[in-house]
């Protein structure tokens, strides 16, 4: 029944699109709504498919660099 309903709605929108601006407005609103919903669903799928990794290699490397630099500066000051 949903398929028949979709076919009827598409037919009515097609007729309205040829008749006047109301059909174009409805057709544009539906297309923009479908595109928006598609992007929203893609975002949700991405959030579930790609988990957030708690390990951040860049942050660890930066912290090691800071520690090594501080140690090097202390060694230069002492000797």
UniProtKB/TrEMBL annotation:
GO terms for molecular function: peptidase activity. One of its GO terms (biological process) is proteolysis. Keywords: Hydrolase, Protease. This is ATP-dependent Lon protease. It comes from Sporosarcina ureae.
């Amino acid at each position: 029944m949903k398929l028949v309903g979709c076919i009827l709605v598409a037919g009515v929108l097609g007729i309205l699109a040829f008749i006047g601006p109301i059909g174009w407005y409805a057709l544009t609103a539906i297309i923009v709504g479908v595109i928006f919903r598609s992007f929203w669903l893609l975002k949700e799928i991405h959030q579930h498919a790609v988990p957030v990794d708690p390990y951040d290699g860049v942050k660890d490397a930066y912290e090691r660099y800071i520690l090594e630099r501080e140690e090097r500066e202390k060694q230069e000051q002492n000797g």
